[in-house]
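Hi team,

Below is the intake form for Thymidylate synthase from Ornithinibacillus salinisoli. Please confirm the fields before the structure is written into the shared record.

FORM ID: S-0412
PROTEIN: Thymidylate synthase
ORGANISM: Ornithinibacillus salinisoli
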Amino acid sequence: MHKGEQAYLDLCRSILDNGTKKEDRTGTGTYSIFAHQMRFDLQEGFPLLTTKKVPFRLVASELLWFIKGDTNIRYLLANNNNIWNEWAFKKWIESSEYNGPDMTDFGNRSLKDPEFKKVYDVQMEAFKQKVLQDNTFAEKYGELGSVYGKQWRDWKTTQNETIDQLKDVIHSIRTNPDSRRHIVSAWNPEDIPNMALPPCHTLFQFYVADGKLSCQLYQRSADVFLGVPFNIASYALLTHLIAHECNLDVGEFVHTFGDTHIYANHVEQVKTQLQRDVREMPVLKFNKDKESIFDFELSDFELIGYDPHPTIKAPIAV
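The structure came back. Fields below:
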């Protein structure tokens, strides 16, 4: 059995059974627990959930977007990745320049009201095309602010300089593997007001032992049904790529959480997922002719043997 996936399913059950009902920023409401940890042995296979389909292509293109230091959804849209659209779209519809139909609470309304969804789909498609085709519009409304890629690759200092944390941590792993400072932080308090969404996965640390690279992620806020499956796969992929560059094998991915929650409008979807059996983990293959993490493209990745249960749809809380 896929031990890591079972740990994820056990977490879902724990939240449903023991979670505290809480209000949240989005107004959706959650069932929440605080402080939890899961471990995934990356030697056993690639930890992409099988109890529902998780689109690996979206995981990989988002990670490459982070690695490039990009903060504009244009790259994602060009790769048919729509997972950040809602935050940019929200910025657009709340601007003084937007004069279209009322899009208030579009996430929930588009699920409950078929007529509204038709209108929303038209507005979202028009927004995406404008981001792709209009440079000025893309710079203003496709931009998400100083989110993950900016902090990983271009952290601003008080001396008006920048730090490339990702390059630095790779250099540190290669030259001083026993260091306890292999850390990248996305949580920059000064930049929080300038982010479409403050980083949920806030800090990660690498650890080298017995020729293997392990990674621990601290995630302050975890949308267990929609977000966490992506986060697990993303940081597992990142660990594989950095291990490759540093001539190491992979060890563990350790996922540590703060506020760990299931949104109130995801409960039925979680219950459906919990009724499904766990299948074999896939195997990750990638182009090992690429030596640097910064050289990879989406076409360099392949998953072998991924046979998941069907997708389960749920609204994103924006």
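SUMMARY LINE: The radius of gyration is 20 Å.

Thanks, M.
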